[in-house]
Specification:
This protein has twelve helices and eleven strands. By secondary structure, it is of the alpha/beta class. The protein folds into two domains: about 130 residues, Rossmann fold (3-Layer(aba) Sandwich); about 160 residues, Glycogen Phosphorylase B (Rossmann fold), CATH 3.40.50.2000. The strands form two sheets. It has a six-stranded parallel β-sheet, with helices on both faces. A five-stranded parallel β-sheet has the order 3-2-1-4-5, with helices on both faces. Strand 9, helix 9 and strand 10 form a beta-alpha-beta unit. Helix 2 packs parallel to helix 5, helix 6 packs across helix 7 and helix 6 crosses helix 12. The radius of gyration is 20 Å and the shape is globular. One of its GO terms (cellular component) is cytosol. This is Glycosyltransferase family 9 protein. Keywords: Glycosyltransferase, Transferase.
Length: about 325
């Protein structure tokens, strides 16, 4: 792919969908700063279609450690990167992985001459501040992506409930999602439940509690590939979701959303100020986002709050609060 390019710029962000989408403003800044270069992103292979959707990256270099660990190496071929950018974290491990490629320059928080890491900083602002330190202007609000072309939503106009999360700390109880779903159904809304390949049982239980048919479940082994998921979210009336990648996808596509935060403040990972995107949180302080049990702050959110927030985010068809909430 390097062909007639002046060189290649490599960014490392070997994490999940939400992590990718919060890095979009910084990636776009690199794209503008190096128009004659190819922009490569070292990230997990399963994110390939989402990476393409950002419009900021020319090439995916497949990498991935266990969980959120730093990959041991980046399988790079050809001449060394002109610039390597550590968007993975602030530790010496990810910085060293990039330095091993002998790039012309390395941008990173672990660089002794780089910027100071700020713990309580929004993720989008963090990576924009990093590249700006090295002379690359960046706009944290430049996060929107376009809906996939030529892909139809499997449930246009539906309210999407996404109960899953990769850690129990950020997983609001399925029974409560079910209460919200039933209130929406009673109000005349079309409702679907999404989830990943390992979340079919959870999604099915939410659908059953909401009084939805099995056809309303878009999860489990038949979980939606990214283009169909993006088309679903882009065409949805609204999305109700925990602090996960689907929340960031709704923000990126401009779809009204209600995000349920628990261990981590929305000031660090939440949507930008916009009446379409409402973050519910019963903090402070913050807790462990990777803990196995639902966070107490998350459990402090009740279904009636979610229905009220939905009514603020978009015009509900006369929904009423769940009984007993």
């Amino acid at each position: 792919m390097s062909g007639a390019r002046a060189g290649r710029v490599l960014a490392l962000r070997a994490l999940g969908l939400g992590d990718l989408l919060t890095a979009v403003p910084a990636l776009r800044a690199l794209r503008r700063a190096y128009p004659e270069h190819g922009i490569a992103l070292a990230a997990p292979a399963w994110l390939a279609e989402a990476v393409t959707a950002t419009g900021a990256v020319d090439e995916l270099v497949p990498v991935g450690g266990a969980g959120r660990a730093v990959p041991e190496r980046v399988p790079w071929s050809g001449r060394a990167p002109t610039v390597a950018v550590d968007l993975h974290g602030n530790g010496p491990e990810s910085f060293a992985v990039l330095c091993a490629l002998r790039p012309g320059r390395v941008f990173g928080y672990a660089d002794g001459g780089g910027p100071r890491w700020v713990a309580d900083e929004h993720e989008r602002a963090r990576w924009c501040r990093l590249v700006e330190w090295y002379g690359v202007p960046a706009d944290p609000s430049d996060l929107r992506i376009a809906p996939p072309e030529g892909v139809r939503s499997p449930a246009p106009g539906a309210v999407v409930l996404h109960p899953g999360a990769d850690a129990g700390a950020r997983r609001w109880p399925g029974a409560r999602f079910g209460e919200v779903g039933r209130a929406l159904v009673d109000a005349g809304e079309r409702v679907v439940v999404t989830g990943g390949p390992d979340e079919g049982d959870l999604a099915a239980s939410v659908a059953e509690a909401a009084g939805l048919p099995p056809s309303a479940v878009l999860a489990g082994p038949a979980a939606l590939p990214f283009p169909r998921l993006a088309a679903l979210v882009a065409g949805a009336r609204a999305v109700v979701v925990g602090d996960t990648g689907v929340s960031h996808l709704a923000t990126a596509l401009g779809t009204p959303s209600v995000t349920l935060f628990g261990p981590v403040s929305p000031a660090l990972w939440g949507p930008p100020p916009d009446p379409r995107h409402i973050a519910l949180w019963h903090g402070p302080p913050s807790g462990d986002p990777h803990a196995p049990a639902p966070d107490a702050r998350l459990l402090g959110i009740h279904p009636n709050e979610v229905i009220a927030a939905l009514a603020r985010a978009f015009p509900l068809r006369g929904a009423r609060s769940p009984a007993g909430s």
